[in-house]
Amino acid sequence: MEPIKSLKQIKRVTTEYFTAAHMAPQNNKKVVYCNVFTPVEMLYALDMFPVYPENHAAIVGARKMATEVAPAAEGMGYSMDLCSYARCDLGSIKAGISPTWGLPKPDLILVSNCQCGTLTKWFEVLSRMYSVPMILIDVPHSDDGSHDEAAEKYVRSQLVDLLEYLERMTSTKLDKDKFKETIRLSGQASDLWTRMLELGMKRPAPITVFDQFIAMFPMVSQRGTHTAVDFYSELIAELEERSANGISAVKDEKFRLFWDNLPIWPELGRLSTFLSDRNAALVTSIYTWAWSKLAVSEDDPLTDWTNQYLYTFNLNFKSRLDNYVDLARNFQLDGFLYHSNRSCKWISQDVQEIRNAVTRETGIPGVIIEADQNDTRQYAVETLEKQIDNFLDMLENLRHGIKN
Amino acid sequence: MSQQYESMWRELGLDLTAHDALLKVLAQGYHDIFLSQANRPTGMDYFNFVVSEVHGLRIQELMDAKRQGRKVVGSYCVFVPEEIVLAADGVCVGLCAGADFATDEVEKLLPRNTCALIKSAFGFKLGKVCPYLEAADMIVGENTCDGKKKSYELLGPLVKNLYVMDLPQVKSEKGREVLRSEYWRFKEEMELLSGVKIDAERLKKGIDAVNAKREAVHRLSRLRNSDPAPISGLDSLLINQIYFYDDPARFTSSVHKLCDEIEERIAARNGVFPEGAPRILLSGCPMAVPNWKLPWIIESSGAVIVGEESCIGERGTRNLVETTSESIEGMIEALVDRYFDINCAIYTPNPGRLDDIKAMKSEYGADGVIHYGLQFCQPYQIESIPVEKTLEQMSVPTLRVDTDYSMEDVGQLKTRIEAFIERIK
After folding, report:
1. Do residues B305 and B299 touch, judged by C-beta distance below 8 A?
2. 3-state secondary structure of A184
3. pLDDT tens for each residue of B274-291
4. Which among A13, A83, A220, B148 is most buried, taking Cβ atoms within 10 Å?
């Protein structure tokens, strides 16, 4: 199929980002390592430069470099059972091998445990390694997702402290106009990102989840900047045009599928071709939707961030199930592909129960494939393909009323 | 034991065939690992008896307590304040999580790469072999690691009354506030469950009972710094495990009785290991009953374990609750102070744990440290590297071991541990 032209800009966007990251110290900008769900608008507004070890690890994985660098982390003593993002990032530092010329040395490490606990331990290692301070935003687990006043107070007060700390560190008072402008840009990027994801509802879909994974970089690392807004504006214009002209992401779209969990970065290209050859389109994924709700109000962003930390990223079983069911309906799904990711306990722990519950609620079947987001030593891609192939056969049979 | 308690186990809904099989394995393992040790203090007879009746008489006691209107509360973690349970006239018991059971069924629910402790907790439930779990009127889950946080969502529908306690993961003043509010919430929940209003007098009694239990194990710990070692690490671990199950007052007096005997043995230089035997400090993940694999390998290789920096060990029992306050507010505050000092690997950063290891190493005269990590336990596995690095920099020989509950790696572990013992001799 005809490739999406706007996605070619990703190379330029990432190169410019990492160049700016490496130049940040020379430009008197403090470098802050942070996790992907961080209120980076604060950092941009204070002229600090956010850098994402998770992004770095994902790029290592996508470039199929995990087997070169992860063993270096294992040589440092980190078990192969640990998250491969952590191993790839730490191993890359140790081995001196990186597709982004490494990352600039941080001045501060800022992390929250709303994503997982491993991240905090990994960043703690980085904090020791670089002898820089680390701030942890401790986010209580949201349990049943109901309103929790004490937890809200706890998280919000930490954000207030964070802002004060950042102001002290930069010897700058937050410029409210600049802050509002950053929040506005961030909200725009999030809205555009949401619009792009919604285009997957069209039949046939003009974009697949594989392309959305590729398009994630500006949303993750540059929300709050013009770069992200410009990139997604252009991408959406192209996708809408393609859709109007009946150009689909997958030729003769036959199966509309869902992807659960993180991507298997080293296999993006291979699995994309594999599914495309079988007229199967990955039209949505709960992972990409995580960046769709990041807009905050200019008047009280701290409260909005607090609610995001507690009730958006930190989803309990029931909330997740509701999301899957909504997506199944909105995207007219035929099947679910669940990636049981060896690296990610947070999302994978209840995958079997989620699969059963989703099928019970929607009648739509799903298959669980065991793999890893980065480490190709943890799975065999041929086995994954075989499982997916069998699953597609089953969907085909179901369509023809044949029981499997 | 089987016939005597069969109707009780049936009433609890246990799978009697599976349960019998479990008891058989447990009895054989206990015989081979514990009863075969030479020259054990006679005070261990009480603990032998407790183990022999762990699913029998003790469960009978719990059922009797329930009949008297008392509530049984099961927990999986040392952050659950037993004092509050006792203040509500309840009984607090640790729940089974130290052996593989019904793994096939568990892996239909949880990913294979889940730590053995969590899988075990589910295995005992799905296999219907844990009378403590079935007897509990409330099960308290706590949000510590990612695996547990997510697993409690799956355990909830399997058990009759799961209560989840949130825990801060950072040691700041605000983190302390979270723990304080969680303990007040837990107090209210216990009052609701038991119908007992917890006042200062009741809470003081609860605090005194648990403090007494802790003082007893502290006394035992101090005696372990003698050479020759007056008690094995295996027996000490067993006592720390029984700490979670037994009646507090009876446990306390039994530990003191044992300590009296140990003091006499120390005076007579009567040890369970030869003088000068290599001394090991264990550090890392908790070892719930009947997880005795690693200590058994270490002590059957000629070294003696002199301390456990573990939840089932000193991390769990260190420090008493301050008793100066007469008010309920002051007592809850004292509980928060005591529990907030537990140096669990869920805290980031967690430098206090390293300080504890260094202090214990020196206090008990350990020659080396073995760090025990359960496979797939991310917090302790990641912390093991700085622990090893710091100790080695201090010239303290350190060995990191990652394992699970299976016996498949026993040979391999034995070889590594024997080599380590050779190094520290």
Report:
1. yes
2. helix
3. 999 999 999 999 999 999
4. A83
Contacting residues for B352 by C-beta, under 8 A, at least 6 apart: B171, B341, B343
**With an 8 Å Cβ cutoff, are B378 and A83 in contact?**
yes
Count Cβ atoms below 10 Å from residue A323 Cβ, excluding itself. 14
- Contact assessment for residue B309 and residue B366, using Cβ atoms and an 8 Å cutoff: no
Domains along the sequence of chain A with CATH? 5-175 (3.40.50.11890), 178-399 (3.40.50.11900)
Q: Please check whether residue B345 is in contact with residue B383, taking contact to mean a CB–CB distance below 8 angstroms.
A: yes
H helices then E strands: how many in chain A?
A: 18, 8
SS3 content of chain A, % helix, strand, coil (to 5): 55, 10, 35
Helical (H) or strand (E) element with A329: helix A317-330
Mutate to test the interface with A, among B385, B392, B398, B403 (most CBs of A within 10 A): B385
In angstroms, the CA A186 to CA A397 distance is 45
With an 8 Å Cβ cutoff, are A82 and B388 in contact? no
Radius of gyration of chain A (CA): 21
Please name the residues in contact with A325: beta carbons below 8 A apart, sequence gap of 6 or more: A358, A361, A362
**CA-CA-CA-CA torsion sign (A154, A155, A159, A165):** positive
Q: Per DSSP, what are the bridge partners of residue B142? A: B165
Instruction: Compute the 3-state secondary structure of chain B and give helix, strand, coil in percent, each to the nearest 5.
Output: 55, 10, 35
B406/B374 Cα distance (integer angstroms): 11
Is the pLDDT at B1 greater than 70? The verdict is: no
Smallest CA-to-CA distance from A208 within A265, A133, A152, A258 is with A258
Q: Choose among A118, A127, A350: nearest Cβ to B153.
A: A350
Contact by Cβ (8 Å): B85, B70:
no
Q: What is the DSSP string of B120-149?
A: HHHHHHHTT--HHHHH-SEEEEEE-SHHHH
Structural contact between residues A180 and A298, judged by C-beta atoms closer than 8 angstroms:
yes
Residue B418: enclosing H or E segment and its boundaries? helix B410-424
**Closest-CA residue to B271 (of B48, B37, B50):** B37
Q: Report how far residue B252's alpha carbon sits from residue B54's, in angstroms, rounded to the nearest whole number.
A: 17
Question: Looking at chain A from residue 179 to 238, which residues have their Cβ under 8 Å from any Cβ of chain B?
Answer: none
Contact predicate A286/A320, CB 8 Å: yes
CA atoms within 13 A on the CB side of A165: 17
Task: Check CB contact under 8 Å for B383 and A342.
Answer: no
Is residue B2 predicted with pLDDT exceeding 70? Answer: no
User: What mean pLDDT is predicted for residues A137-164?
Assistant: 90
- 């203040």: which residue's tokens? B87
> Cα separations (Å) of A14 from A211, B55, B243?
16, 61, 56
Q: Sorting pLDDT into bands at 50, 70 and 90, what band is A404?
A: low
Where does residue B38 rank: exposed (0-12), middle (13-18), buried (19+ CB within 10 A)?
exposed
Judge residue B344's burial from the number of C-beta atoms within 10 Å of its C-beta, 0-12 exposed, 13-18 middle, 19 or more buried.
Answer: buried
Span B78-119, pLDDT tens digits: 999 999 999 999 999 999 899 999 999 999 999 999 999 999
Q: How many CB atoms neighbour CB B153 within 10 A?
A: 21
What tokens were used for A6?
A: 């706007």
B interface mutation test: which of A121, A153, A368, A375 has the most B CBs within 10 A?
A121
Confidence of residue A403 (pLDDT cuts 50, 70, 90): low
Nearest to B47 by CA among B227, B240, B233: B240
Determine how β-strand A335-341 pairs with β-strand A255-260.
Answer: parallel
Residue B169, token pair as written in the block: 């993961």
pLDDT for residue B395 is more than 80: yes
* A309 close to A137: Cβ distance less than 8 angstroms: yes
The residues facing A33 across adjacent strands are A51, A109
Is A140–B166 a contact, with Cβ atoms under 8 angstroms apart? yes
- Which residues 296-325 of chain A have a CB within 8 Å of chain B? 316-317
